[in-house]
Amino acid sequence: MTPHDDEEFTAFVRPRLPRLRRAAYLLCGDWARGDDIVQRALTDAYVHWRRVRGAGNPDAYLHTVLVHRFIDDRRGRWSGVELVETPQPRVPAHQPDLDEALDVRAALARLAPRQRAVLVLRFLCDMSVTDTASALGCSEGTVKSQTSVALDAMRRLLTTTGRDHS
Asked: Which CATH number do you get for residue 69?
């Protein structure tokens, strides 16, 4: 890679990093693991920067790599280890309903990994059905059905907390 490629890659990644970290956290439920997943995804993207840059949708390409690293992480040494979450200090722009946020995160964590990935990619990363299908290596119909099933499961899980978040 040339110095210009390095600068271009950095300029591409810098504004996307907070969303990538949040997506990884929502996929795996742990900030430290999420950061590891993001780091591996960015390393892959850096090594293949010309391919990423030449992709029709580099953001979708990067999210695809992120999901693949998450799936690899689940298959690897982390799959049987439960980690205690270390809270990350954050200053919100507005005061969110913390109980609601915890309920949603807990419900999301209880979903199957592919259902969780579909919801994170579709609604957090704002990816289209087509891009989500490409990232997960499945059909658009599967994305639609998994989204529906996952949203139904989220509604049920959130309703059982005694708080209706819909």
From this structure: 1.10.1740.10
